Amino acid sequence: MSESAVLVDAAVAGQRRSRLTGNGRPLWSAAVLLAAALVAMPVIAVVVDGLGSLNSGSIPQDIGSMVLVTVLLLVGVGAGTLLIGGGLAWLVTAYDFPLRKTLSWALVLPLAMPAYILGFVFLSTFDVGGPVQAGLRAVLGPGAWLPDVRTLAGAVVVLSLTLYPYVYLLARSALVEQSATTYDAARTLGAGRARTLWRVVLPLARPSLAAALALVMMETLTDFATVQYFNVQTVSVGVYLVWKGTFDFNAATQLSVLVLLFAVAVLGGERLLRGRSRFHQKPGRGEGLQPRKLTGWTRWVASLACLGVLGLGFILPVVQLIGWAAGEALASSEPLVDPRFAEYLVNSVTVALLVAVVCAGLALVTGHAQRLGGGPVVATAAQVTTFGYAVPGAVIGIGVLIAFARVDGWLESAGVPGGTGLLVTGSVAGILVAYVVRFLAPAYQAVDASFAKISPALTSSALSLGATPRRLLARVHLPLARRGVAVALALVAIDAVKELPIVLLLRPFGFTTVSVWVYELARENFWEKAALPALGIIAVAVIPVYFLFRRSAGLQAGAVTHAR
């Protein structure tokens, strides 16, 4: 073969590799691949171990009822959040009534209320020993029949009241950002407001509603503390009970595979809800969907509807917690603040800050590597890093245990005595790894949104002028993406503060966070003692929730101004 032919073949091979891997810097691309491997590792470990131990595990006999209850819970919460969140989004967008502007942002506040906190407040109020049933029996007689609230329906109500803001935020954003010309054209052709809603507005908002419902169902699938309060045993609850109750590791991994199947089904359902249809909007001038001013009694009904949901989901629980905390302080001779509270709060905040910094850093590196031209491989790996958020915390916790147990085995076989010596699974490091796997997705989405606004020409210009990738990151990408990094830090920190399943599964002896403390106190019906730490979690969560709404409201206002 001639030398020219060899050169041609080498050039063709180089072009093929370039199409596959891009023109990025190998070290930066390798960092993204390592992050993707970190996220995929626990999931793969659970699947391999679960499928490999099908004949050695003892699946619980009530697995059928677990599956049925899980399906009913997902459907119930999905329908409840769609009705509440979607209905409120339409109400505050399409109509004008008293307190509308204040309620439009206040309706997001239940997002700061963890479901397990609202759950025990709900039970203390409406259960057999609560003031509501006591008052009803005083009126109807001591033998009067009253419904049991520790049921699947009660869990659906509580989860719907805490998760509806996901649907509300995305639905309202979709309604505000819809093209003015689309709505005006439908009205010009004679369609009323109701017909325009069903035939034009909702189809255009369907992708946002589908994404919101998928997020709600993933959060529902992850939850196990709230449903345990209501004596509802889902598959996720089964994973925890089998792992902590019987120590049947094989059965726990098999149930974890079943939970993963539910997660895949939810993601597939989200794609199905989007449908094969495609709806595109053309920007144009016009006033679009202008709020219609309600008059008479209807305007007060609208205000009361919003206040009712906000009261049940946030105001009344906070008032009840404040009352418990004050009563406990007045009735007890002990110090106002439990000495353990400071220790547990430091644990929660330290873990949250560490995880937030790591996730934001990995997200920044991933976005930077893609801008350097990583190609399809890096782009695919970047998407893999978002998969951890779709996996329940209990599954991630077990996956981390399996994965690092395998690493220990490999190290011992390679001649390293004791492997890692439980350095990861026997310490807080295991929690940190599981948190990074779980919460890297929201950090990446926030940072990637900022990178999307940076012109690729700016990156190319810096590189052509001789800037190294590290200098490009420090002097160009990081300053321009700093808002996305700030949002990533806030989102991950608040998710980490509220996280419960991962800590319960992986915490070493003597380590406790505020969320675990609240859960354990509420499980033993120590409502008053749980009030103050619960208020601490809510107070910390309100800050990023308000920041998140202000950011989305600013974007929406800009979109409306541009349309006008």
What descriptive keywords fit this protein?
564 residues; disordered C terminus; globular; two-stranded parallel ribbon; 76% helix; mainly alpha
Question: Brief overview, please?
Answer:
The chain is globular, with a radius of gyration of 26 Å. Mean pLDDT is 76; it is low at 3-23, 278-287 and 555-564. By secondary structure, the protein is mainly α.
Strand order across the biggest sheet?
1-2
Structural class: mainly alpha
Order of H and E elements: HHHEHHHHHHHHHEHHHHHHHHHHH
Low-confidence segments = 3-23, 278-287, 555-564
Tell me the β content.
under 5%
| Main sheet makeup | 2 strands, parallel
Shape, per Cα inertia axes = globular
- How much helix is in the residues? over 70%
The total count of helices amounts to 23
Distance between the termini: 68 Å
Cα radius of gyration in angstroms? 26 Å
Q: How much is the average pLDDT? A: 76
Number of strands: 2
Task: Tell me what the structure shows.
With 564 residues, this protein is an all-alpha fold. It has 23 helices and two strands. Helix 14 (339-371) packs antiparallel against helix 15 and helix 20 packs antiparallel against helix 23 (527-563).
How do the strands and helices of this protein lay out in sequence?
Elements lengths: L2 H19 L4 H27 L10 H32 E2 L3 H7 L8 H12 L4 H10 L11 H26 L2 H9 L4 H30 L2 H5 L5 H12 L2 H26 L17 E2 L3 H35 L7 H33 L3 H10 L8 H21 L14 H24 L4 H9 L4 H12 L1 H17 L2 H6 L7 H10 L3 H37 L1
Parallel strand pairs: 1-2
